Automatic annotation (TrEMBL):
One of its GO terms (cellular component) is cytoplasm. Keywords: Antioxidant, Disulfide bond, Oxidoreductase, Peroxidase, Redox-active center. This is Peroxiredoxin Q, chloroplastic. Belongs to the peroxiredoxin family. Prx5 subfamily. Residues 21-186 form the Thioredoxin domain. GO terms for biological process: cell redox homeostasis; cellular response to oxidative stress. GO terms for molecular function: thioredoxin peroxidase activity. It comes from Pseudocercospora fuligena.
Length: 206
């Protein structure tokens, strides 16, 4: 499998607040091309969906220039993708129904990455920038192309519950999401169930 570790010398991105508007937002209905050969509309999916976005992955024989490495948040797209591969079983056990990766790269490029790194989930292409525009996702520019900055979203029944941004280090991306699901999300569900049960008991007493 692909190497998933991440060099410690890479600069850390700062939280510029560019994702503060996303929690609680209804996910836009968009059909994004998928490595499955069809299109996926995340807004229509039920249950928990994880969508992680990243700037771009390098081709197998591509030499990554040092200029790219020195951009905070640029380096580490393949380690991020592999982190979700490595924790796919644990995410499923935590109640996740779907995991998707997304960048502005095209589907053929994504398909090569999926096969090479043996990703068990599909990759979605926002090549036209529709998702980026609809959700006003943070951008970075490289060689004249506007890319999506690295982030992860937890979507439940078409609504964005939680956003992880910035994501650093990227090889801890899936672990960060899993920790939130196991602690905060499950805690919310337990509290909600207790409140509902108490309400029902009070109603039955009347």
């Amino acid at each position: 499998m692909a190497h998933t570790t991440f060099p410690s010398s890479i600069p850390k991105p700062i939280d510029d607040g560019a994702c503060n508007h996303l929690p609680g937002t209804k996910f836009p209905s968009l059909s994004l091309p998928s490595t499955s050969g069809s299109s996926t509309d995340i807004a229509t999916l039920t249950g928990l969906t994880i969508l992680f976005c990243y700037p771009r992955t390098a081709a197998p024989n591509e030499t990554v220039p040092d200029e790219w490495n020195q951009i905070p948040g640029a380096r580490g797209c393949t380690p991020q993708a592999c982190s979700f591969r490595d924790l796919s079983k644990e995410l499923l056990e935590a109640g996740v129904s779907n995991v998707f990766g997304c960048s502005v790269q095209d589907t053929e490029y994504h398909r090569e990455l999926k096969e090479r790194t043996r990703l068990p989930y599909e990759l979605l292409s926002d090549e036209e920038g529709d998702l980026k525009k609809a959700l006003k996702l943070p951008e970075m520019e490289w060689e004249g192309k506007k890319l999506i900055k690295r982030l992860s979203m937890v979507v439940e029944d078409g609504v964005i519950l939680k956003v992880f941004y910035p994501v650093f280090p990227p090889d801890r991306s899936a672990g960060e999401v899993l920790e939130w699901l196991q602690n905060e999300y499950q805690g919310r569900k337990t509290l909600s169930t207790e409140v509902e049960n108490e309400t029902m008991r009070n109603l039955q007493k009347r």
